[in-house]
Specification:
Layout (H helix, E strand, L loop, with lengths): L2 H25 L3 H13 L6 H20 L4 H23 L3 H19 L16
Helix pairs in contact: 1-3, 1-5, 2-3, 3-4, 4-5
Length: 134
């Protein structure tokens, strides 16, 4: 698979994953999603209410998914998605437990990291970044 197609596939997979979770679970208020965010709210001693936590996470994930679809902002979005996904991964490790959603969170962390790796700039033969002409 050519590199350009692989990068597009990664962007589509991650964006669709984030958007589907936001639209069909967080915004829709599915009971399972409400239960997870209630558990997280209780773990935070109620500092953030469940609806604010759930809807806020959905808004952030929607914005990140849209940014990841735009080629000019894809690298920034990949970095932000990777940083954002540390929270759900730690939440599953310490509060929610392991399962399908945990595996999904890990995959959503790894794919943007792989995208960043594939789109990194290459240093020249000496090991320094290329310099502009003087």
């Amino acid at each position: 698979m050519p590199k350009k197609i692989l990068l597009i596939v990664i962007r589509l997979l991650v964006s669709l994953n984030l958007l589907s979770a936001a639209i069909f679970f967080k915004f829709a208020g599915v009971p399972y999603s409400v239960a997870l965010f209630t558990k997280m709210s209780e773990a935070a001693h109620g500092l953030v209410s469940q609806p604010v936590f759930r809807i806020g996470a959905g808004v952030i994930e929607t914005v990140l998914a849209i940014l990841f679809l735009i080629p000019q902002t894809a690298r920034l979005a990949a970095l932000l998605i990777a940083v954002w996904m540390i929270g759900p991964i730690l939440s599953h490790i310490f509060v929610l437990g392991y399962g399908g959603i945990f595996v999904n969170a890990v995959a959503t962390f790894i794919l943007p990291c792989f995208y960043l790796y594939l789109t990194r700039t290459q240093p020249n033969a000496v090991g320094r970044a290329p310099q502009g002409r003087l």
